[in-house]
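Reopening: DUF4870 domain-containing protein still failing for me.
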Amino acid sequence: MDTNKLLAALSYFSIFFAPFLLPIILYFVSDDYFVKEHSKKAFISHLVPFLGLLFIILGAVGDFTGGGIPVFSMLGFVLYGLLCFIVLIWNIVRGIKVLK
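Support: Ran it again with your exact input. Result attached.
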């Protein structure tokens, strides 16, 4: 198996054990364009759930300061869970496609 393909796939699969660390390390250490491109895409895909978490926090602050039922917060948590699941599946599929 090609080492560059394995490293590129590992950057996607790192969502399970080192979501930010491994793609950044591979991006700066590797000289291969293929590995750099996939590690950059993996890093961005690992970053998406944390940006979604920011919107949930902002929505929760708005809900709880106005009183009433925190509808946007509850909806935000459901959408955030769905977003995390989609990102997880997307990373698994991309890692498998890179290995083929």
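The chain has one domain: 3-99. If you still see a failure, please send the error message rather than a screenshot.
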